[in-house]
Amino acid sequence: MLLGVAGLTPGDWTTVDENVAQAVREHGFRTLQLRVPDPLNRDQATIERVKNAFESAGLALGQTVGEYGGGLVSDDESVRRDAVEALKQMATFTRIIGGTNTYLRPGSMNPGGAWWPHPDNRSGQVFERLVKSAREAAQAASDEGVMLAVEGGVVCPLFSPERTREFFDAVNSPAMGYNMDPVNYIANLEVAYDSTSLLNELFDQLGHVTIAAHAKDFTVVDGLLPIRVLRQRVGAHCQQQRDHLRGL
User: Fold this and answer.
1) Taken in order 110, 105, 91, 56, is the CA torsion positive or negative?
2) Which of 31, 36, 148, 166 has its CA 20 to 30 A from that of 11?
3) Contact of 74 with 83, CB cutoff 8 Å
């Protein structure tokens, strides 16, 4: 297992140089997530500079993440196809840069954002469109020799560990891996106050397909509507980080 970081450094992948890579290493991490606004903007000189920066600092190239939004589940076929194509291009970029996997966000029917709620996100039609998009992208990832790493959460079509497992069974591709981010599944106070049970369910349902994980924490807000969950730095509040790491 490699401990890595996302968001420690400003900018996208093109800003990574030896100073950035060394700063990541000095914090004790072994990899850095690369954010890629445009996977077609991949000139060879920049690619070599980034790869050399990773190598000089002793970092491994791991996960990339694209900026294709939430269109994988769109009911507008042209929007859905564009999102799939962007994800395919991310798979190509990941292979060229030497990474192992690229992040897959399931998307949302909410035009405001890929991680915003919408009543249709839990519908069968949206789930089927996500499966269709994922199958197409997974084939491209397999052809490139990399993997996709899908994440779930209560506001998206993969709203529970069980639903996420159904997604893997439906896609049925060895190129599809899971990016475990337990805090995303905090749907109510029962789960918030017993996050260990959530972790156990995630590992029971999805441990065999987990290839990456995001670690963050959360806190429950005092008030009449306390399930407004705020993300926090790791170790700050409620998430059982030790159990998470042991499971991985």
Assistant:
1) positive
2) 148
3) yes
- Tell me how far CA of residue 15 lies from CA of 3, 18, 34, in angstroms: 21, 10, 10
CB-based burial label for 190 (10 Å; 0-12, 13-18, 19+)? exposed
Written out in words, the top-level CATH class of the domain with range 62-215 is alpha beta
Residue whose token pair is 């991490």: 29
Sequence ranges of the domains in the chain: 62-215
The answer to whether 107 and 158 are in contact (CB under 8 A) is no
pLDDT 10s digit of each residue in the chain, 248 long?
777 878 777 789 999 999 999 999 999 999 999 999 999 999 999 999 999 999 999 999 999 999 988 999 999 999 999 999 999 999 999 999 999 999 999 999 999 999 999 999 999 999 999 999 999 999 999 999 999 999 999 999 999 999 999 999 999 999 999 999 999 999 888 998 898 999 999 999 999 999 998 888 877 777 776 555 555 555 555 545 555 556 55
Give the tokens for residue 178.
Answer: 């899971």
